[in-house]
What we know:
By secondary structure, the chain is α+β, with helices and mostly antiparallel strands. It contains 2 helices and 9 strands. Helix 1 crosses helix 2 (121-131).
Amino acid sequence: MAFVIGDQVLVVSLNRHGQIVEARGQAWRVLVGGLTITCRRDDLRAITQKSKKSRPQASSAPAKSSSQRQPHATSDEPSSTIDLHGCTTVEAREALLRHLDVALRAGHALVEVVHGIGTGRVRGAVMAAVKDVPSVRSVRPHPTNKGVLLVYL
């Protein structure tokens, strides 16, 4: 079975769910939590999602992967999280833009961006990056965690 970008998979060696973000020859780049890892095909298993008919009619939200954490803010919107701890500003910007692209295609309305507190450089890079994304409706600081921004799509 061939995977396509956006497919939900199980990374067998980690026993974690992730999402395909890129194909690289015989390998696949998989977003697992906030990290993107490279896996061989034999380390991945497809996760079957419920059909649209079995979902409640009131919501057109996709099924959530178990690797996604709920944001600390109470919300009924589908969400995803990216952790940028340890990234340079350039790495953080690139990872965030890739993650936002995947989140948009997956139908997420909220992305929780964990940038940490530190010097504030990564937070600044995140704020500058999301200003360039037309699908970002708003950005708000997390109500109880200074090291997190909530990006509404």
